[in-house]
Amino acid sequence: MDIFALKCILMSIGGRSVMNKILQGRAKSLKLPTHITIDAGRTQIAPNSRTVMAILGPAVSVDNVTGGLKLL
């Protein structure tokens, strides 16, 4: 039974400032919770890099935030 299943869609953004200022700001204005993951730096990614942003909510609301982004 998939009543609690969530979609996961990967998208590309223009940089950290886009994630922090534009996307998170839009999500907050729609009262959608967000989470930004900070990388530990144990691979090729530099420590403390913000690599992933999760936006939680109904698909229609999340699409209002992410609709203009390219899919990976």
What are the salient characteristics of this protein?
72 residues, alpha+beta, Bit1, two-stranded antiparallel sheet, two-stranded antiparallel ribbon, 21% strand, PTH2, peptidyl-tRNA hydrolase activity, peptidyl-tRNA hydrolase, hydrolase
Domains, number: 1
User: What is the count of DSSP helices, taking H or I runs of 4+ residues?
Assistant: 2
Q: What would you call the structural class?
A: alpha+beta
- Give the CATH level 1 class: Alpha Beta
In total, the number of strands is 4
**Looking at the structure, what is the overall shape?**
globular
Radius of gyration: 13 Å
User: Unreliable runs, pLDDT <50, ≥5 residues?
Assistant: none
Strand content: 15-25%
Q: Averaged pLDDT, please? A: 85
The CATH superfamily is identified as Bit1
Q: What is the topology?
A:
Layout: E1 11-12, H1 16-29, E2 34-38, E3 50-55, H2 59-66, E4 70-71
Antiparallel strand pairs: 1-4, 2-3
Describe, in plain words, how this protein is organized in 3D.
Pfam families: PTH2. GO terms for molecular function: peptidyl-tRNA hydrolase activity. InterPro entries: Pep_tRNA_hydro_II_dom_sf, PTH2. There is one protein chain. The protein has helices at 16-29, 59-66, and strands spanning 11-12, 34-38, 50-55, 70-71. It has one domain (7-67): Bit1 (3-Layer(aba) Sandwich). The longest helix has 14 residues, at 16-29. Helix content is 31%, strand content 21%. It has a two-stranded antiparallel sheet with strand order 1-4. Strands 2-3 form a two-stranded antiparallel ribbon. The model has no long low-confidence stretch (mean pLDDT 85). It is built from 2 helices and 4 strands; from the N terminus they run βαββαβ. It is globular, with a radius of gyration of 13 Å. With 72 residues, the protein is of the alpha+beta class.
